Protein: Pyridoxamine 5'-phosphate oxidase family protein
Amino acid sequence: MPRKEPATRLDPRYSAPEATPTTWAEAREQLETAELYWLSTVRPDGRPHVTPLLAVWLDEALHFCTGAGERKARNLAANPNCVLTTGVNVLDRGLDLVVEGPALPVTEETPLRRVAAAYEAKYGSEWHFDVRDGAFAGQGGRALVFQVSPATAFGFRKGAYGQTRWRF
Structure:
């Protein structure tokens, strides 16, 4: 899939005078290498739900899996809009990232096999998944797979504070 180069804008309201926009290439690299992400979804009654999870960046999208009965899967069935975040928990350095977009189910065998291979390459053999019946099959049972292609993303640079927005 060809890379999408988003419109990039530094928001001066939330940026130091010397700040420059973070490149999408840098943000994408961090999305590829981050180990932990936080998924925010909306419960049917409108309350937020946030949970940590593992994810892989593949074909210009984040991919994650979850059991069909888990709260996040049930939330996404009712409302696919979500936010994935990653970054570092320090104030004076690093880059925090926020990716907004709909979580769409991945059910076709070839893409599922590619996502499964990406999980194992990134997280090791403990995260091996077989593909069966439009989902992952692993030690924890059946897991649905979702893909979040960014609609909008934000980068929050720390140190020389800068807020970058990417629109796709």
